[in-house]
Amino acid sequence: MKTLVIHPNDRSTDFLKSIYCKLKNVTLIIENTSRDVLHELISSHDQIIMLGHGSPSGLFNVAGIGTGTFTISHFEVSLLRSKQCIFIWCHASDFVHHYNLKGLSSGMFISEVSEAQYYNVSGNQAQVNESNNVFAEALGNALAVTSDYHQVLKQVTHEYKHIVLENKIAQYNLERWQLID
C-alpha cells in the first residue's frame, strides 16, 4: 500500500511523527507543496494520513502545503472519497461527517495545556505529553502491522485506555477517537 502522509512542519505536532515513522512505502509532505502537486500525490496513493492542527473546516496550512488557510479542505474531498484516510486534527471528525467521508478521525484532540484549560479538562504538561505520546505510538504500532482500520481502532483504544484512569486528557481524547465508515 502506498501511503501519503501530510504533516505540516510545526514543532508543536512533532509527537505525531510516531504515527508514520515505522511505515513502509511512505511519501511525506511537510512543507512547500503546491495544491496541484498535493492533488497529484493524493490521487496516486492508497492511504492518506493527515496530521496537524485544524478545525471543522480542515487541516490548517501552516507550512505552505496547498494555498490559502487550509491544506486539506473542501477542495480535496472528492480526491479523498476513494482512499483509506486517517484524519488527526482538532475537530477532524466534524470535517469527515460534514463531507460524508470515511476513515479514522479525531474529534477535538487536546494536545496542549491551553486546550485542556479551554475545554475544562484537568491536566498538566506531563499529562498532555503522556497522552500525545501514547496515542501516537499506539497508532503507529497498529498501522505498522495492519491496514484494517477496525483492528487499528481496537488496538489504539486498547493501548490508550491504560492511561485514562489517571489522565483525563487521554480520557477526553479517547472518547472522541473514532472510525467513521
How are the elements arranged and paired?
Layout (H helix, E strand, L loop, with lengths): L2 E4 L19 E4 L5 H9 L3 E5 L2 E2 L2 E3 L9 E3 L4 H4 L3 E5 L3 H7 L4 E4 L6 H6 L6 H21 L3 H12 L7 H7 L2 E4 L1
Parallel strand pairs: 1-2, 1-3, 3-7, 7-8
Antiparallel strand pairs: 4-5, 5-6, 8-9
Helix pairs in contact: 5-6, 5-7
Describe the structure in your own words:
This protein is an alpha/beta fold and 181 residues long. The protein has a single domain (3-180), classed as Rossmann fold (3-Layer(aba) Sandwich), CATH 3.40.50. The chain has seven helices and nine strands, in the order ββαββββαβαβααααβ. The strands form two sheets. The chain has a six-stranded mixed sheet, sandwiched between helices. Helix 3 (92-98) links the parallel strand 7 (84-88) and strand 8 (103-106). The radius of gyration is 15 Å and the shape is globular. The mean pLDDT is 97.
